[in-house]
Design brief:
rod-shaped; 2 domains
């Protein structure tokens, strides 16, 4: 069973605040990474300009080819070969360089964005997310324990288990805050205060566990 937030107001508010802060932290670094990506991608205009220049050169060379007079021995072929060489070493080279620079800019933008935003996000989300997952499971398990004890009518036995667990797991300060005589409470089977302290420690309202039965009053005898 998973329970996202404890019953008590203050612990629940602290966890809500922690969740909101982690979300804001993640969103802030994600936005910063997106801005860096967009900034680097602005360099695309350089690559596009180089590609456009190469295409323009190729168009000029094509126009030159069509303007070469045909039927002139050696001269026609020389001019066509010259046009091919110009296209290969100028226009085509510029187009290829523009495409390569464009791809490199995209890779650089992605890498920089990830390097900027991912480490700080993981630095917070991994420890906090791990703790929150364990906390939700712990609170959910405590709630399942209380529900089963209440449904099966074993609230007294559950209180005893919680009291002994309180003695073994609570700090001395928490233990003495819950009861001025925890040993005496265990010896006299007074489990209510220790069980309540343990339920509060688990994030649950002590009232979730059925209250102990009232002691039976002796029958009233008339005078």
């Amino acid at each position: 069973m998973i329970k996202a937030y404890p019953d008590r107001t203050v612990p629940a508010l602290l966890r809500v605040a922690g969740d909101l802060l982690s979300l804001l932290w993640t969103a802030g670094w994600a936005v910063l990474g997106w801005l860096i990506y967009q900034t680097v991608m602005g360099l695309e205009v350089i690559a596009d300009g180089i590609t456009s220049t190469g295409i323009t050169f190729n168009n000029w060379i094509d126009s030159f080819r069509h303007a070469v007079p045909g039927g002139i021995p050696y001269l026609t072929q020389f001019l066509l070969d010259t046009a091919d060489a110009l296209q290969r070493y100028s226009g085509d080279s510029l187009v290829s360089a523009g495409h390569n620079i464009h791809d490199a800019i995209i890779r650089l933008a992605i890498v920089l964005a990830l390097l900027v935003c991912v480490p700080p996000i993981l630095l917070v989300l991994l420890p906090y997310g791990t703790w929150r997952w364990r906390d939700m499971r712990e609170v959910g398990a405590a709630l399942a324990f209380v529900r089963i004890a209440s449904v099966t009518g074993r609230a007294d036995q559950a209180r005893a288990v919680l009291a002994f667990r309180a003695v073994t797991s609570l700090s001395f300060r928490q233990l003495m805050s819950a009861s001025s005589d925890p040993v005496g409470d265990l010896a006299e089977h007074r489990y209510e205060r220790l069980a309540s302290a343990m339920l509060k420690r688990a994030g649950l309202d002590p009232d979730r566990l059925a209250p102990p039965p009232l002691p039976e009053l002796p029958p009233h005898r008339g005078s």
